[in-house]
């Protein structure tokens, strides 16, 4: 577990993480840092996977660590939030997530050790999360939270700079650079949030402030994720923007296959589009393009929440 | 007046030389006590008590508030014996560096043993203010039940309790006027505690739950606020929405201090104007805080309430420079301002332009651990404030770059600094323009600011800084040092030169036993010394303990490493002798 703590969410080493974040911040754009995808990745306790199997593991890694970071909160609070009878609250090893992609480990039985992590190259669009297993591990998340003072880069000195723990933790929860929580700066000139798509080998970042409406956002996302269609994936190289028909993407995004969801400030996963655009940008922390099969049960809850809000 | 009294006593003593040894004062004791009862400052009272025995007695009978800066310097028995009529106690516990996780958990400073004695001797206790103490739920419940007149509880930077303890206070303290829960390490289980105030309870004047995270029952809060007509301080937590805030303000326009919730919510036009008019009716607001997620959009609703603001705490608000500037225009009387460095130098320029009465500025870092940040504040911002705010005397400034020249100019502009706390966040960082140490900066501070009481240094510093401090900082009482100095000479200078030194805290400096022992003569006139990450050894500490038996020399041993190296040592004077509750990792020598 200590290994995992030093890695950021996709298991990259510290330098890569900070350089990746740094370059994204500096360019202010949607560039993909190729360096990131060139590094070896591995689930905690496992060897780095072979290059060819990179995709599968990347995917499983993404799902798993997303779950660790993003979903745990949602899932911890109540099982079945995703319509899955999850192991909410169980101390499943993170690695178990890897098992999701193996034919055997679907129901999460037995704690697969690191070595069990499967490099299944199931390809994109294949069955992702099955019922009954939600990869999450509340403990690492909490450990990580308690170490908010230890960022990815340099080894931190205890108690330096001299800021009361209380203030540190409060700011970390809406700090723009915090590992776990908010990924967007509030009230500033830019509002970067991560966008993940189920099955995509890497995430993207978008600046919500550059869009004026949901339409703008969704067309931008379509373009961005146009390469990640079923059966096609490239873990190297910039996503090609030509040769993919957008109408297919429209289907993917608005049709039956995919649903666009976001995590709000409370940590809940909501359907995009319910609230006024400004309210959405203020409260959106991350975006996820989710398979609609997983989104069962999401919409009604989102409605409820909005009712409570308004 | 003092001289006259003494003279009268001497005159009467000479004519009554055959009387008993107790001199009959020409002033009856009751009158003296009455007069002394007007004295509030505990420093004044200490002076008074040293005049003569009569005055000592009169003072001790008339003292109703006792301040104990180090809970281990004295025992509750001693306190209660000397001061029989105390109604209000302020206690501070752990060393200040415990705020930064340098003190291991379960170190001590438990309030419970104090409460047990107070229950017997101060059953009429009304106020308890604790800082860096360990407080359990059991203690809170005991407090709520044992003191029927209990009125005011303030907990700052404490730990060990949960919201259950607060529930006990709310339930049982029928005369509560103040509940002030600030920045504690609290186990926040739920917001139910607020609903524990009885429906007929209406004496609350101060309610601060800004740092609690769970939702309270809003209806209960609203009823409470509307019942408590004397409420003057209300600081709610971030879960309270703008709409709810507006409703609260309507019930309490008399508020003097307000801490808002997150100040973020989608409001309809009519709701917004209701909010604005609610603020407009708050004509007595002096202190404003909260605003933890303030959207620039809604800040203007606040403007009508800012005319009389003297203290604005935006240290939890990620405000940008323009937003701050717009707000400050409406705060002409501002004396104290706390902000995050998201306002950047531009925001500080606005401070310089709009706040001529400013006396205190604190700039906190929004991203203290982020290496690559290009934002935050620099020496320019500080300079801009110093040009515009000549009355500035208290500063706490976190930055990533500073120059000697800038600091020299700053203190020329503002020579009245009493508290100068500069934190250049990267340890050992030199003047970024000249690459020199920051010695001249702090030299300028101590040379120019003759009233300086508190100093915190940072950046690359040699012994020269401490030579300057010893030579010039004659009013210095508190000194904080980190990653600084070249040799023991530094501390020798400080001990040799600062007559009023009371608190010295040092971390990660190359100071060893010679430095530690150079303060031998000094420690009994100081409250405490903390040294961690230095080069002190067990032998040095033992020698100190042996030479100065009235000091408690406590070594904190956390790991099983080298027995002779001392990582953390805490030295303080005490009339209570060695601690009896020390945990296993604290060795009293």
Structure write-up:
The complex is a heterodimer of chains A (310) and B (589). Chain A is 35% helix and 9% strand. The longest helix of chain A is centred in the first third of the chain and has 24 residues, at 54-77. Chain A has helices spanning 2-6, 14-27, 34-38, 54-77, 96-99, 138-146, 165-173, 214-224, 246-254, 277-283, 298-309; strands at 192-197, 204-207, 258-264, 269-271, 284-291. Chain A has a domain at 202-229 and 245-297: Phosphatidylinositol 3-kinase Catalytic Subunit, Chain A, domain 1 (Ubiquitin-like (UB roll)). Chain A is an alpha+beta fold. Chain A is built from eleven helices and five strands; from the N terminus they run H-H-H-H-H-H-H-E-E-H-H-E-E-H-E-H. Chain B has a domain at 29-63: Up-down Bundle (Monooxygenase), CATH 1.20.1280. In chain B, 33% of the residues lie in helices and 17% in strands. In chain B, the strands form two sheets. Chain B has a 21-stranded mixed beta sheet, with helices on one face. In chain B, strand 17, helix 17 (463-472) and strand 18 (478-482) form a beta-alpha-beta unit. Chain B is globular. Chain B starts with a helix and ends with a strand. Classes of the chains: A alpha+beta (310), B alpha/beta (589). Chain A binds chain B through residues 18, 21-22, 25, 149-151, 153-154, 156-168, 170-171, 174-177, 185-189, 265, 275-276, 278-279, 282, 309-310, and chain B through 97, 99-102, 157, 183-185, 211, 264-266, 292-296, 315-316, 318-320, 323, 340, 342, 364-373, 398, 423, 425, 427, 480, 482, 507-508. Chain A: InterPro entries: AUX/IAA_dom (IPR033389), AUX_IAA (IPR003311), PB1-like (IPR053793). Chain A: It comes from Fagus sylvatica. Chain A: This is Auxin-responsive protein.
């Amino acid at each position: 577990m200590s290994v995992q703590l030093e890695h950021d969410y996709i298991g990259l080493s510290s330098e890569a993480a900070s350089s990746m974040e740094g370059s994204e911040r500096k360019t202010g754009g949607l560039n993909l840092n190729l360096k990131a995808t060139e590094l070896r990745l591995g689930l905690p306790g496992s060897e780095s996977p072979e290059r060819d199997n990179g995709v599968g593991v990347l995917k499983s890694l993404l799902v798993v660590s997303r779950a660790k970071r993003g979903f745990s909160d949602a899932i911890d609070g109540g099982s079945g939030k995703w319509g899955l009878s999850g192991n909410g609250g169980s101390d499943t090893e993170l690695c178990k997530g890897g098992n999701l992609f193996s034919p055997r480990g679907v129901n999460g039985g037995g704690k697969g050790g690191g070595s069990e992590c499967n490099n299944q190259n199931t390809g994109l669009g294949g069955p992702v999360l099955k019922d009954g297993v939600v990869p999450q591990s509340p403990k690492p998340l909490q450990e990580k939270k308690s170490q908010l003072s230890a960022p990815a880069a340099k080894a931190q000195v205890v108690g330096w700079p001299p800021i009361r723990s209380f203030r540190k933790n409060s700011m970390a929860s809406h700090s723009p650079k915090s590992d776990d929580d908010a990924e967007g700066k509030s009230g500033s000139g830019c509002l970067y949030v991560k966008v993940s798509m189920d099955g995509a080998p890497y995430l993207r970042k978008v600046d919500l402030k550059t869009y004026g409406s949901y339409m703008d956002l969704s067309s931008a996302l379509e373009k961005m994720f146009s390469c990640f269609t079923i059966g096609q994936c490239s873990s190297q190289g910039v996503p090609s923007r030509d040769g993919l028909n957008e109408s297919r993407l429209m289907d993917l995004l608005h049709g039956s296959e995919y649903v666009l969801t976001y995590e709000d400030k409370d940590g809940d996963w909501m359907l995009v589009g319910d609230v006024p655009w400004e309210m959405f940008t203020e409260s959106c922390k991350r975006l996820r393009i989710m398979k609609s099969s997983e989104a069962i049960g999401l919409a009604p809850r989102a409605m409820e929440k909005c009712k409570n809000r308004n | 007046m003092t001289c006259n009294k003494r003279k009268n006593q001497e005159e009467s003593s000479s004519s009554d030389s055959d009387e008993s040894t107790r001199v009959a004062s020409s002033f009856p004791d009751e009158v003296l006590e009455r007069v002394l009862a007007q004295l509030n400052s505990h420093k004044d009272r200490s002076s008074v008590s040293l005049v003569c025995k009569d005055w000592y007695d009169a003072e001790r009978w008339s003292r109703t508030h006792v301040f104990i800066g180090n809970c281990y310097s004295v025992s509750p028995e001693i306190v209660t014996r000397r001061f029989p009529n105390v109604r209000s106690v302020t206690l501070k516990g752990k060393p200040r560096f415990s705020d930064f996780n340098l003190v291991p958990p379960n170190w001590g400073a438990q309030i419970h043993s104090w409460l047990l004695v107070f229950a017997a001797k101060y059953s009429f206790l009304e106020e308890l203010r604790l800082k860096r103490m360990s407080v359990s739920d059991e203690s809170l419940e005991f407090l709520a039940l044992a003191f029927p007149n209990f009125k005011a509880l303030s907990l700052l930077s404490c730990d060990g309790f949960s919201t259950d303890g607060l529930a006990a206070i709310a339930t049982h303290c029928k005369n509560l006027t103040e509940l002030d829960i600030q920045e504690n390490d609290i186990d926040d289980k739920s917001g139910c505690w607020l609903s524990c105030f009885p429906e007929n309870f209406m004496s609350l004047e101060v309610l601060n739950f800004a740092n609690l995270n769970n939702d309270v029952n809003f209806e209960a809060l609203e009823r409470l606020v509307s019942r408590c007509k004397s409420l003057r301080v209300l600081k709610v937590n971030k879960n309270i929405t703008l709409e709810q805030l507006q409703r609260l303000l309507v019930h309490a326009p008399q508020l003097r201090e307000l801490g808002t919730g997150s100040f973020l919510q989608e409001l309809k036009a009519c709701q917004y104007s209701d909010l604005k008019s609610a603020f407009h009716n708050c004509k007595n607001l002096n202190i404003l805080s909260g605003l933890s997620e303030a959207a620039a959009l809604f800040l203007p609703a606040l403007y009508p309430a800012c005319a009389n603001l003297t203290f604005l705490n935006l240290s939890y608000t990620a405000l940008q420079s323009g937003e701050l500037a717009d707000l400050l225009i409406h705060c002409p009387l501002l004396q104290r301002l706390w902000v995050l460095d998201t306002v950047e130098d531009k925001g500080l320029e606005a401070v310089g332009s709009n706040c001529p009465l400013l006396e205190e500025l604190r700039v906190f870092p929004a991203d203290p651990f982020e290496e690559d940040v290009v934002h935050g504040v620099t020496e320019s911002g500080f300079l801009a404030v110093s040009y515009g705010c000549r009355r500035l005397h208290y500063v706490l400034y976190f930055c990533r770059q500073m120059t000697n020249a800038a600091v020299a100019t700053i203190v020329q502009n503002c020579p009245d600094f009493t508290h100068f706390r500069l934190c250049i966040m990267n340890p050992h960082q030199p003047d970024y323009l000249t690459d020199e140490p920051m010695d001249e900066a702090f030299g300028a501070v101590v040379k120019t600011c003759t009233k300086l009481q508190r100093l915190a240094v940072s950046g690359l510093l040699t012994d020269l800084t401490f030579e300057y401090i010893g030579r010039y900082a004659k009013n210095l009482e508190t000194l904080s040092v980190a990653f600084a100095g070249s040799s023991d000479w530094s501390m020798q200078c400080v001990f040799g030169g600062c007559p009023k030194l009371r608190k010295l805290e040092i971390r990660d400096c190359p100071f060893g036993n010679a430095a530690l022992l150079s303060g031998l003569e000094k420690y009994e006139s100081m409250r405490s010394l903390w040294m961690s990450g230095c080069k002190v050894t067990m032998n040095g500490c033992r020698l100190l303990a042996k030479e100065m038996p009235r000091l408690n020399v406590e070594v904190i041993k956390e790991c099983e490493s080298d027995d002779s190296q001392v990582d953390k040592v805490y030295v303080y004077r005490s009339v209570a002798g060695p601690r009896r509750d020390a945990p296993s990792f604290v060795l009293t020598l």
